[in-house]
Structures are given as C-alpha cells and as structure tokens.
Amino acid sequence: PSLKVDSLLFLQTDGGIFNDSRLVVTNGTVEGTATIVEGNQVRTVSNLVTAGGYVFFATRAGTRGPIPFYRYEIATGELEEIFEAPEREDNRSYNLQLIGVRDGLLYLSVLADTEIGRELYSIDPGVEIVSVFGGQRAPELELEMTSETFTVVAERTGNATLSVYDLSGQLLEQREVPVN
Questions:
Q1: The predicted structure's pLDDT at residue 74
Q2: Is a pLDDT exceeding 90 seen at residue 15?
Q3: Handedness of CA 78, 122, 87, 63 (dihedral sign)
Q4: SS3 for 123-139, per residue?
Q5: What single DSSP character describes residue 136?
Q6: Which residue of 12, 29, 38, 86 sits 20 to 30 Å from the alpha carbon of 160, by its own alpha carbon?
Q7: Are strands 54-60 and 49-51 parallel, antiparallel or unpaired?
Q8: Nearest CA among 126, 36, 35 for reference residue 83
C-alpha cells in the first residue's frame, strides 16, 4: 500500500527472501526517507489512512495472530501502537479495510465471519482529530429514499458503491448502483 500526504509518500517495501519488509516515508530524497516500522511484522500492512496530521495503519506478520494498529504522527515521526485485535480462536485470518477517521474514531470494515458478512467497527485512535486533510475525497452524493426505493444524486453520472449497514454495524447489502 501507499499514501501521498502533501509532499510525503508513505509506502511498503518488500525485502524479498533475505531482507525485512519496511513501511517507509519519503519526500523523494535520501535524507528525507525514514523507516516507520520494519521486520517480519510488516509482511502484511493494511491500507493507510490519514487524518489530522496522522497516518493510521495495521500490520501483521502472517495470516494468523494478533493485529496491532498504529498511529504515526507526521510532524514528529512518532509511532505509537493504539490497539491490538486479538488472535482468532478459529485460526482463520481477518480481512480488514481501514475506512477513515470521523468524529474522533477510526473506522474499519472487517470480514471476520463469512456467514455474517462485513461488519463495521471503530476504535479510539488515542488523539483528538480536529481537522482532516489530504487523502482522497469522494464526490459528494445525496441519497433520496422512499419506503420502496432510493436514488443516488450527484453532479456527475456514473456508478457508486452503496453499502447498507444496520444500527449494530453489520453489513446488510453492498452493490453498485447508477448515479442520477
């Protein structure tokens, strides 16, 4: 995975058989390149999410075991583990996707049980996010709903992915829908 924040690029390098994988940040120069985390633990890095001067990500050494979640402060280069998802009892791997930070919580979508489907979770990132900058911004969409149907309205035509969750965060339905 990679993420561009202003003039910085965050990316995972694959060390191959003889070297460790690393998550690095660079401004494009040798002097401006630093390792954030390295070692066997970085074999799998989730997508990277930025909010309020921080980059959030999760790592894993393999398909099993606990998953640590990290917060990296861009201005200081400080890395802190903020949460650890427990090891699964059934020896299956998690399938997770970080979504973003909203109202002070880091949201993620997890496929922990294929019979239930994707579920929405949030964790406290340990810092107050005052503003959100950088990252990709989706075009603004408006959802007009009736008791039988809905219409997705936007400035441009095309398709959107619609995800419907119940109040507990469980994904009820996800599909591509036409816009306008």
A1: 93
A2: no
A3: negative
A4: ECCCCCCCCCCCCCCCC
A5: -
A6: 12
A7: antiparallel
A8: 126
Rounded Cα distance, 60 and 45, in Å: 7
Entry field: residues in the chain = 180
The SS3 call for residue 40 is helix
Per residue in 29-68, pLDDT (tens digit) is: 999 999 998 876 667 787 888 888 899 888 876 556 677 8
CA distance 70 to 6: 20
Q: From edge to edge, which strands make up the β-sheet containing 119-123?
A: 96-102, 105-110, 119-123
Which conformational region is residue 115 in: left (phi greater than 0), alpha (psi within -120 to 50 degrees), or beta?
A: alpha
Under DSSP, the state recorded for 42 is G
Strands 105-110 and 96-102: antiparallel
Which tokens is 150 given? 């809905």
User: Cβ(150)–Cβ(160) under 8 Å?
Assistant: no
Largest CA distance in the chain: 59
pLDDT at 76 over 90: yes
C-alpha torsion angle, residues 49, 50, 51, 56 (rounded to 10) = 60
The β-bridge relationship of strands 105-110 and 119-123 is: antiparallel
